[in-house]
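Materials and Methods. Structural model of Urease accessory protein UreF. The 245-residue sequence of Urease accessory protein UreF from Bradyrhizobium lablabi was retrieved and submitted for structure prediction as follows.
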Amino acid sequence: MLMTTNEPTPVDASGGMTAEEAAALYRLMTWLSPSFPVGAFSYSSGIEWAVEAGDITDAASLRNWLAALLADGAGFCDAVFVAQAHRAAVARDDEKLRETAELAAAFVPSRERQLETTTQGRAFIDIARSAWACDGLDATVAACGGAIVYPVAVGIVGAAHAVPLPPAMHAFLHALVSNWISAGARLVPLGQTDSQRILAGLEADVAATARRALAASLDDLGSATFRADLASLRHETQYTRLFRS
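The predicted structure was written out as tokens:
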């Protein structure tokens, strides 16, 4: 059968991936890899204080803490911002994009979390823009109108490069959880096997959070993890610190 110019070109006839799908996957794996230089390793999202206070003492308590963050705290809220920013960028709805970016920047509970998410957001956009030039990204960034936090940055860069939202969502949450586990592993401390067990144990939580976030609107935003918010506030005055948040 002859291939028409309207059909996507397969990379591998046996694998079924198109060139566009392979490029999107390659970029997504790169952008949300622990090696992508946004400085995520230097932030703990309040986990350092939770370990100091005795809330997190072992693998089980770390897993429970992170499951709550995913379902009822920053994990879910950030995932909603990824989805809303991605959709607004795809639709070229500048008003919705600005609203999402402003709300996301105002939604963090402490000065250190604000530093964490804005610094990573700025680095994510700058590095992705430098390494992967993309038509329209500059205009999308400008439409946000101010500081761009990390989940919004992931959403708009993914949209600019035609990365589908569902895999971008799952990759974002995987990166978020992986960084939390990495911080916890250094602070408790935990071994590599325990860290991977926690990551495996949170697989269903990540999937459930992604599903909820994809179906949510900005009106569905909300957090019920007061202790985690308190941890991010108390970390600012913690006597000894390894992390910036």
